[in-house]
Specification:
The protein is mostly helical. It is built from 26 helices and no strands.
Length: about 525
């Protein structure tokens, strides 16, 4: 055992040093999400009576229950964490997947693990170090969020249960990913297995929570994300559910170690799918190649935008009830402005949240340029006579086109579904225009990522930190009473108020030019620097 784990302490220090920005920023973002959201809700509904009167109809909507799960109790504390229990559990699971995959399969695919393995490092040490780092992230995000909720004056037992709900999902996906990175032979394949399991767990949980009782409802216990919801913070406070997540962690890590001892370095249990010997003519250019490599990701996001559009559009039928609650109306105005009807204001607030998610997809697509450079794919492409600028521009163009497609899909879906849900909902073109109008802010973040990966790829992960800061100060800043100058620093704070208000044409032009300028600067830097 000691031989297999030799060098664990040094690998752990190395992993923590590499994640010295990403890990604290991710944990801080999750804590701000849970505590900031709870603080904003409690400011509007300080007692149980006002909470029940204000949002009883909304939290009982079937589409809302499918998305966030049922509320655990009819009081202000339960309402304060209603949206963040499931949303945060998913994000903590994503953090676990990213950390385990980053320090195992990605290292192996890019050849660094072979170099490390040439030293006094045991066979199990890299996977063990990745699991420990991921657990630190999960425990820190869950524990600090629970402490933050206690600091707000919320029930300590319920706050602890909230942390347990997040930790349960995080532990489960640390174990699931520990196995996935051994089964797949590529980083993309490992991500597909882990994120596929996450999507399946969410769908199963949503279906189970959509019914009250019976066999279908009981199926929610088969989903690790369902376990997070069944903790019921500020309700039943089932802290013992954490044992289920711990069980998946132990089984997953044990299975991963067992597979690790039986496979060759660089290989996996599932063989990679080989393509044809000769590519089709349509794949002869860099844009076509980058688009082909991103097809799976783009299709997944399009499906997610369709589902999100259906849920958001159906909610417009219940938003009209919020006009009876002045506090809730003020809360929506803080997020989405005060122009137009309550449906317009609600949709304006939601467009910004989805714009942040789409910006994250755009950043991830641009950062594939750096991943291609590290894996050697970029070197192979550049050796064919393809210029650096064409290779760089292909990644930026695919990111721009993909983010445009995502917002068009969700905007059109909301417009079609919303018109059926409510006669006073924004029309098709109004909903589509509202989502498309957020593109300039998305492109600014894409431009920042392009500049970082073009100039200094080692600093590219900072794009995630800037995206997180932009989300917190731009979207949650008005509800957290942050200074106006700080809120204005986020591109998401200059999107105008659509639907219902006026399009911020000047801000859109400035942000579009800014995004283009950042991408152009990154292109110049990429053309001049050494490419690994």
């Amino acid at each position: 055992m000691s031989t297999r784990l030799a060098g664990l302490d040094r690998l752990l220090r190395l992993a923590l040093r590499r994640d010295r920005v990403i890990l604290p920023a991710s944990v801080l973002g999750l804590v701000l999400l849970s505590v900031g959201s709870a603080q904003a809700t409690l400011a509007l509904f300080p007692d149980d009576a006002s909470a029940v009167a204000g949002l009883a109809d909304v939290v009982g909507n079937p589409a809302v229950v499918a998305m966030y799960g049922p509320i655990s109790a009819a009081d202000a504390d339960a309402l304060a964490v209603f949206k963040t229990v499931m949303m945060g559990a998913v994000l903590v699971a994503v953090l676990a997947v990213v950390l385990v995959r980053r320090h195992t399969r990605t290292e192996e695919e890019e050849g660094r693990l072979e170099l490390v393995g040439a030293g006094a490092v045991g066979r199990w040490a890299p996977l063990a170090a990745a699991v420990v780092v991921a657990l630190l992230g999960v425990v820190a995000a869950s524990g600090l969020s629970a402490l933050g909720l206690v600091a707000l004056g919320m029930d300590p037992a319920g706050s602890l249960a909230f942390g347990v709900a997040w930790a349960t999902a995080g532990l489960a996906w640390v174990g699931i990913t520990a196995t996935a990175v051994q089964l797949a032979s590529t980083t993309r394949g490992a991500g597909g297995l882990a994120f596929g399991a996450l999507g399946a767990a969410f769908v199963l949980r949503a279906a189970a929570d959509s019914v009250d009782g019976g066999v279908v409802h009981a199926l929610g216990w088969l989903s690790p994300l369902g376990w997070s919801g069944r903790v019921e913070p500020y309700g039943r406070d089932r802290a013992w559910v954490l044992l289920l997540g711990l069980g998946v962690l132990v089984v997953g890590v044990a299975a991963g170690l067992a597979v690790l001892g039986r496979r060759d370095l660089g290989a996996g249990v599932l063989p990679p799918r080989l393509g044809p010997a000769r590519a089709a003519r349509r794949l002869s250019g860099p844009v076509a190649l980058v688009a082909r490599l991103a097809t799976g990701t783009v299709v997944g996001w399009v499906v997610g935008m369709l589902v999100g559009g259906v849920v958001l559009g159906s909610l417009l039928g219940a938003v009209g009830d919020l006009t009876a609650n002045p506090a809730m109306a003020r809360f929506l105005e803080a997020l989405g402005g005060s122009a137009g009807t309550i449906e317009d204001v609600y949709l304006a607030s939601e467009t910004r949240f989805l714009a942040v998610a789409v910006a994250a997809a755009g950043v991830a697509l641009v950062l594939r340029l750096g991943a291609a450079e590290r894996s050697g794919i970029g070197e192979s492409v550049l050796s064919t006579g393809t210029s650096r600028l064409r290779w760089y521009a292909a990644h930026v163009l695919v990111a721009v086109l993909a983010t445009t497609l995502f917002l068009v899909v969700v905007g059109a879906t909301v417009g079609l579904v919303g018109a059926r849900a409510s006669s006073t909902a924004p029309g098709f073109w109004a909903a589509l225009g509202a989502f498309v109008s957020t593109l300039p802010a998305v492109w600014v973040l894409v431009g920042v990522a392009a500049l970082l990966v073009g100039a200094r790829p080692r600093t590219a992960p900072l794009a995630w930190g800037l995206l997180l800061v932009g989300f917190v100060v731009g979207e949650l800043g008005p509800t957290m009473d942050l200074p106006g100058w700080l809120v204005d620093a986020s591109p998401f704070a200059h999107l105008g108020q659509l639907p219902g208000g006026e399009f911020a044409a000047l801000a859109a032009v400035v942000m579009t030019l800014l995004g283009a300028g950042l991408a152009a600067a990154g292109a110049l830097a990429y053309d001049r620097r050494d490419v690994a």
